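Re: that chain you flagged

S.,

Sorry for the slow reply, it's been a week of failed gels. I finally had a moment to sit down with the sequence you sent. For the record, here it is as I used it:
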Amino acid sequence: MNEPTPPPERRPAKGGVPTLTVGNAVSLATRLLTSILAAQILGPVGRGAVALISVLDEASTALFTAGIHIAAAYHAKVGLDSDRALINAALRAGILLLPLSVTAALLVGVLGLAELEPAARWLTVVLIGWTGLVNLPGMAAANILRAHREFRRFAVYWGMFNSVTLIVVAICAVLGSLSVAWVAAAFALGRIVTGAYGLAATAWPSLRPHAQLGPLFRYGLRALPGSVGTLLNNKLDQLVLVPMVSLKDLGLYAVAAGTSFAPAVLSVSMALGAFAAVEKDADRGRQASAATAIRRGILVSALAAAGLALVTPVLVPLIYGSAFSAAVVPTIILLGGSVAWGGTLVASQCANALGQPGYSSIGEVTGVLLTVVGLVILVPLYGITGAAVVSLAAYVTRLAVTLFLLRREGVKHVVPGMDDVTWLWRRSTQSLRQGPG
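Prediction finished late last night. Pasting the structure tokens below so you have them in one place:
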């Protein structure tokens, strides 16, 4: 049994929110470009098939990693284990979880995905099946970088998957050979390259020495409902829509959902930075680190969502084509939900940093229940517009629940005010002068 290492001294941050914002912006921009290429070349039906593969890939990544990558971040942050021991533990955990992911992959491949061409179908099986071995160690490495405030390397990791995917898709588009199967292959290559980079930036895994798996699984399983709930609240609508609507309507909704995530670029970056920065300082009132981070996450999401909503009626048909005009109304509705989503991202990371991953899990599970019930009721009546309304309600609900639970840790004063507007103005002008760093 390994003795825990002494708590490390707080490392100086390498990069900051501007650096994370650039990395997240690259990730979002490359993802949107991939979506646009797929939409324009494959049409709404093909875009729906791509959305299905993406949702299943992300679902398996959330579920079959058992929250170990989140636990690794916390252990690295407080100095319970060395980075190498945590990476090795993630590999061992991935091996233990492999039978579950492989079984799930085969069931999905045999019993579902009948609408996909055979190559795309079995590539999706591979994406689900290898989650523990390919995705988990790299995700653990990335979260360790975040815990140590290695924001420059983490920003590279953050943008790498979608960048690799875009490169493959763009090459296929130029060669005139783009298909749903090639997009699935691009996802697979993106997972491999991204995982390899994360490990190269921390430590290459082996089976020994390794951190104790028991504490990691206990923390990870407490955080798992939150990580799975985050995925489900963001993607469950698309999963439930699969048997309820056509691939064409799924493609329209995927475009609306993808566009609505754009305002969260800054709040995602702030959430990633909050994990390392938040401390138990609730006695500072409005100036407490968690409350301040949450307010600012909500503020930047609200301003960005309002701006994008104004141009959505022109922007969506212009970028994706007139075949996607029906996505305009769902996009505007989901932009309202993106404000609450941005706040939830920050609030969840604050809860994790304060040692309370269960808070965000409770909020996410509440949102999942609301989503399931709401979709079953509204989608048959109002189609993808009804799905957008349900998602909006779920985003607001999970933020409210998470903030209510955080009050137990003294986290209050979460409504943005003029002090936050002043901060945003000063930070924006400073970033423009200095550039990322």
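What I noticed first: Confidence is low (pLDDT under 50) at residues 1-7.

Talk soon,
D.
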